[in-house]
């Protein structure tokens, strides 16, 4: 009888930053990350600008695997955000998680293939809580789920996005922080782990 190797904790040292944060501190098993003011990721669509200054701590994500991060933060300013960044290259990537927009916390994703899109839904009930975001990589897609970590009955992980993603490409993923509109956003990452990809799409 075989024993699953998952979930497997990922050490923070296994990742490399897409862009260095303003500050990074180890506190026991946790990683505390402070974003640079103006950091963000967006490519061309609608707004007429390009941003490639997000703080993504990424490690390889193969097909058939999933990555999860757990975190808490005080999201209070426009577009404060945290979650997971998945990257193939500068023009093919996904950022998924939570974002403070127009006075309310939202959960969703930006999927980029030469141009970015954005999907988001309000989750005010997640404010101030320990959250988990998971991305599962299939042969041709990424499935994004999120929710309250260790959620009670009725707080199951919800589907945030199912997006096309090149299964033949090398990709890496991990914790994400960005703060487009202010200095001082600090996110506490409690856990980073590899798991088996979700069997179910929905």
Automatic annotation (TrEMBL):
SUPFAM superfamilies: Concanavalin A-like lectins/glucanases (SSF49899). It comes from the Bacteria. This is DUF1349 domain-containing protein. It comes from Microbacterium invictum.
